[in-house]
Amino acid sequence: MSPQHFALAWSVLFASALIGGTALKLWLAQRQQRHVLAHREAVPAPFRDSISLEAHQKAADYTVAKLRFGLWTTLFSAMIVLVWTLEGGLHLLNTWVSSTFGTALGGQLALLVAFAVIGALLDLPWDIARTFGLEARFGFNRQTPRSYALDLLKNTLVSAVLMLPLALLVLWIMQVAGGWWWLWAWAGLTAFSLLMMVVYPLVIAPLFNKFQPLPDGEVKTRAQALMQRCNFALSGLFVMDGSRRSAHANAYFTGMGAARRVVLFDTLLGQLSPAQIEGVLAHEVGHYKRHHIRKRMVVMFGVSLAGFALLGWLSNQVWFYVGLGVMPNLFAPNHALALILFSLVLPVFGVFFSPLAAATSRKHEFEADAYAAQHSDARALGEALVTLYRDNASTLTPDPMYVRFYYSHPPALQRLERLGALPEAAPNSTHTPATA
Ligand SMILES: [Zn+2]
Hints:
By secondary structure, the chain is mostly helical. It folds into two domains: 1-141 and 272-324 and 337-420, no CATH class; 143-208, no CATH class. Helix content is 70%, strand content 4%. The chain has helices spanning 3-38, 53-84, 89-101, 105-137, 145-176, 181-208, 218-229, 266-271, 274-289, 292-314, 318-322, 335-350, 354-375, 378-391, 400-406, 412-421, and strands spanning 211-213, 236-240, 251-254, 261-265. The protein is globular and about 70 Å long. The chain binds zinc ion. Zinc ion is lined by residues 283, 287, 365, 368.
């Protein structure tokens, strides 16, 4: 095959993946919508005592509204990828930037920045519509236009401070490190992300939220007893003012090693009893004790190493650029172009791997639940889950195929079934025969 044939074959492969992936997403959303609406009129039997029909229907309506919104963002982003690549958008931008700023390191950085800024501007209207339209309509949004604008400003500044030096570092490595640049660039990015695990909770998160030590009380005593029981070192328990932005509740662990901290959203404290919060925390400890965090990191770093190796090879292939609608500079570096094209291509093919990632994640959730059931009260965790499903308006009746592709957590019914089936959960757990 001649180089032109390679480029053409690559164009066709890319366009097929983009169209196929988009069609797949629309099909899955369609399935989910049909499934949720078909179950809208009745609360599933196991939840009849804990979730009202009204709450169930709100969850259905919220799910459908999110799907319809997602339909437009899916189509829009597919169109944007198409415009950047096959329609020649990136080629145009590159021509303009390189004739204005040159093709040396500064010009390369300018191209990355221009691409990132345009991308952010294109996303902004959607994010505004999501926050003040969709989320507000279902009573979840707590942001005012003013606080939203302030967040946006802070986010932009923080990204600039962090990302500009990082981008410059990668571009510089690409320029000076020769054929093995991708290995060095990967090592640099890996070191950066490890550093961020420590820096983020201590420096960046406090810029956006207030963190206060968990006040004395039953939640704290229970949490401390649990950590002791599980032999889990912790540097602190904090409450975050999540209610400033959203009514959605959450809890998470952050940091590494002895710098680990537990963060509870204030919204969670308002919704759950101390015993239920203990169940949620036991689940989170389970993720650590079953080595999910470490496994996830190893997989992430392994996948990114493979990605960088692939990029190292692709960046030297003229067909990679030409097939995506860009004429590479023949006598100047194409580093920024290669990075941008790669970032556009990855998600297009990534969709097809999402069931793999989602399945692993769901398996981990079951394992963390099992750990929680062993070291805490499975029933309390079950109640907590039901409350969170209700208050976050998460549907209880998702489409199984949609779950397979997107759900990082098993559906409510499956999780509760497993929790209840554990011997620790109910001492006399004999399965009651189904009545005919
Ligand atoms: Zn989990």
